[in-house]
Design goal:
alpha/beta; binds NADP nicotinamide-adenine-dinucleotide phosphate
């Protein structure tokens, strides 16, 4: 496919790009390396106004950035505009909080003084996905740059225009030229960049196979990585929940970003007492969703980002049906140009089949019925993933159990999983490791340096014999 913007609504190629040549890539790595020593010495007070300027650019030009995202990867325009606004929020958050999160921490020991100092590592490679083409990048870049690192972005090959627009935002905001660079390269070139001595660490947001590959190479090079990978998030609904609110939120949680979100709720685990009513309401709301051109304001669900994603979805639904699942609505691609798939609800899925706990990246929901809290927790945890989880209940005891026992990087009670610059974000199990956002995110790519200063007596007075030795 190469590096190209292909409008997923029409299939039309908007723009194609040549990959960087070896020489061009080398020049960018050199620039990153030569920018770092001076950039790391800038103070928080010097970096913060630049980050605030980036926020202003994002806010002022959110319509244009939104349109760019929508035409490159298909999310509804209103969601794309909100994404640009959220990027501004994370820039402001780190402009205002980086200094506090990275301030020296004094620790009382037997030393005269001991403390922890946080220092930047150098050029950090970010391998990023197309599904939130601005947000994923900014939530890496804002803390990394405020910490004094320099960033190298290898974005997904289907969103090159977003990748270039982001590089330009940081340049216009006043960051030095080499502080944030986009590398237009395919995934086959990531290995060489990771192995380059000048690159000190890497973060990858993407699929499990990509994570394994990058972590394997970086591990061999003894370089730190953060991995934000896939998910098969459970959304549990118990009898004490407000059913109307739970259903509406459940539909939104499944179909947000056309169903292509790592933290989209993918498995709906519902108590038997309320199951029938949940299923009826859920199917009605899925049927009411308007699928169409994501630039139209009335559209709820746009196309999937690439034809491959439609093929994958079709294959997963076929496998579910072959192992006994039933379709209550949807279940096939839509016969029109572009990568459209019907909002779909599957029931009677055998929990023993792999598809029941795989990541399904599109507007396909799976409903499960359980008899009690134990069964709900057991089914929720029956996946190799552990990114987010949501549970709807007004019973305090149940809430405590879900908080304690769900194997995930987050638990949202009576809500849907979402990211917020003030809260850490990340997963356990095959959903990855490390955290983004909040103070945890900015501390991932720093040297946590221990400083220990002892008491020492004044130098001994020199004896005359010293001179003869
Ligand atoms: P992907 O195919 O893994 O691609 C992600 C990025 O990795 C792209 O830049 C891709 O480059 C690159 N890549 C792919 N294979 C690679 C390899 N072997 N070595 C080095 N780089 C490689 O994932 P995607 O389809 O773009 O994104 C969807 C996935 O991302 C889903 O699994 C989703 O759950 C996950 N995701 C996770 C989070 C989170 O925070 N946990 C957030 C968003 C998305 P090319 O485009 O050039 O192939």
């Amino acid at each position: 496919m190469g590096i190209a913007s292909i409008n997923p609504t029409t299939g039309q190629t908007l723009k194609s790009f040549e990959e960087l040549t070896g020489e061009q890539l080398e020049a960018r790595l050199q620039l990153a390396e030569s920018t770092f020593p001076a950039y790391r010495r800038t103070s928080f007070a010097e970096r913060a106004p630049k980050m605030l300027r980036a926020a202003e650019i994002l806010e002022t030009e959110k319509q244009e950035f939104g349109r760019l995202m929508t035409t490159e990867m298909g999310k509804p325009l209103s969601a794309a505009i909100s994404e640009a606004e959220k990027c501004a929020l994370v820039c402001r958050y780190y402009a205002e909080n980086a200094e506090k999160h990275l301030a020296d921490e004094v620790v009382q020991t037997n030393a005269k003084k001991s403390y922890v100092r946080f220092q930047p590592l150098g050029p950090v490679l970010a391998v990023m996905p197309w599904n939130f083409p601005f947000w994923q990048v900014f939530r890496f870049a804002a803390p990394a740059l405020m910490a004094g690192n320099v960033g190298l972005l290898k974005h997904a090959s289907n969103v090159p225009q977003c990748a270039l627009a982001i590089e330009e935002i940081f340049q216009r905001a006043g960051f030095p030229e080499g502080a944030f660079q986009t590398l237009l390269i395919g995934s086959a070139k990531v290995e060489n960049v990771l192995k380059d001595e000048r690159v000190k660490a890497a973060t990858l947001t993407g699929s499990e196979p990509a994570g394994r590959s990058v972590a394997g190479i970086a591990g061999d090079q003894i370089k730190k990585t953060v991995l934000e990978l896939g998910g098969s998030d459970p959304f549990i609904v118990m009898p004490s929940a407000n059913l109307r609110e739970a259903v509406t939120t459940a539909v939104k949680a499944r179909t947000i970003n056309n169903g292509q979100s790592c933290i989209a709720a993918k498995r709906f685990i519902v108590a038997a007492e309320i199951y029938e009513e949940f299923e009826r309401r859920f199917v009605d709301e899925m049927k009411a969703l308007r699928v169409g051109d994501p630039l139209e304001q009335s559209t709820d669900i746009g196309p999937l980002a690439t034809p491959q994603i439609v093929d994958d979805l079709e294959e997963q639904v076929k496998r579910a049906i072959a192992s006994g699942a039933r379709i209550l609505t949807g279940g096939k691609r839509i016969d029109r140009p572009g990568n459209f798939y019907e909002p779909t609800v599957l029931v009677d899925i055998d929990p023993a089949t792999p598809v029941s706990c795989e990541e399904i990246f599109g507007p396909v929901a799976m409903l499960f019925r359980v008899n009690n809290t134990d069964e709900a927790i057991q089914l929720a945890n029956a996946t190799t993933f552990g990114l987010g989880s949501a549970a709807w209940t007004n019973d305090a005891r149940e809430q405590r159990r879900f908080i304690e026992e769900l194997e995930a990087g987050s638990v949202f009670i009576n809500g849907m999983v979402a990211s917020d610059p003030r809260l850490p974000f990340g997963g356990v199990k095959h959903s990855g490791y490390g955290r983004e956002l909040a103070e945890f995110g900015i501390r991932e790519f720093v040297n946590i340096k221990t400083v220990w200063i002892g008491e020492s007596k004044a130098p001994d007075s020199r004896t005359p014999t010293d001179d003869t030795e």
